[in-house]
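Quick one: structure tokens for this chain, please?
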Amino acid sequence: MPLAEVKESYSRCCVNPKFFDLFYETFLASHPTIAPMFAKTDMTKQKSLLRQGVSMMFMDLGGVAVGTTGIDRIAESHSKKKMNIDPNLYDYWINSLVKSVNACDTKMTSQLETEWRKTLRSGVDRIASQYNK
């Protein structure tokens, strides 16, 4: 299943006005250390950043240089020296996003979910690999 189908699924989710709210509701409740990290966050801005970040993952996986640069910037901001986001928390992020996609994409299948997880894992692994830089 090509990346194009994951991107189409994401497009279907993005037009659902509840998608990003559902994601953050799920993500913030997924682990006790996550919600406090967002206590002073402008969530409107954060939702926009999430939307862009997922798109950067798609571009990076597709070999588009601007996507790779974007993921590397996210990695730098999330590194130990900056926001110090524990790489172990990324599994909660992936699971929360996939759960939200499952709830919002009426064309979701188990095969598409597997592709979503592979796609997100690729981006998350790139980010996590730069944690100690």
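The domain at 3-128 is CATH 1.10.490.10 (Globin-like).
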